[in-house]
From TrEMBL:
Organism field: Podospora bellae-mahoneyi
Subcellular compartments: Mitochondrion
Family: Belongs to the mitochondrion-specific ribosomal protein mL41 family.
Pfam families tied to this protein: MRP-L27
Designated name of the protein: 60S ribosomal protein L27, mitochondrial
Keywords, alphabetical: Mitochondrion, Ribonucleoprotein, Ribosomal protein, Transit peptide
Cellular component GO terms held in the UniProt record: ribosome
């Protein structure tokens, strides 16, 4: 009995380990680091020196353009009620205007 050729070659050794390649006890993880620590009472304390912060540089004069042009103006809903788009009567009125009567 001979092992398969894929296991003998160098190609297999260069692949990443998966949970199917090794015995139990192998924990792959997600690559995300801890942001704090667990307390003895079941809470979690965030350690702000471990939190990742990203600083965006000044993009004035940057040659690449965004996905959405800056010429697009913001649109806001025009609702007469206090609840806005969550108002049930407003929802039913819009549904009837778009889909017809019952």
């Amino acid at each position: 009995m001979q092992p398969t050729r894929a296991l003998l070659g160098m190609r297999y050794r260069k692949l990443r380990l998966t949970t199917k390649d090794v015995n139990k006890g192998f924990y792959k993880g997600t690559g995300s680091g801890s942001m704090g620590r667990h307390t003895s009472r079941g809470g979690y304390i965030i350690e702000w020196n471990k939190v990742r912060t990203y600083v965006c540089p000044d993009l004035t004069g940057f040659k690449l353009t965004p996905f959405v042009t800056n010429a697009v103006k913001r649109t806001y809903g025009q609702y007469d009620t206090k609840l806005g788009p969550r108002d049930p009567q407003e929802y039913l009125a819009r549904w009837k205007s778009e889909n017809g009567l019952d």
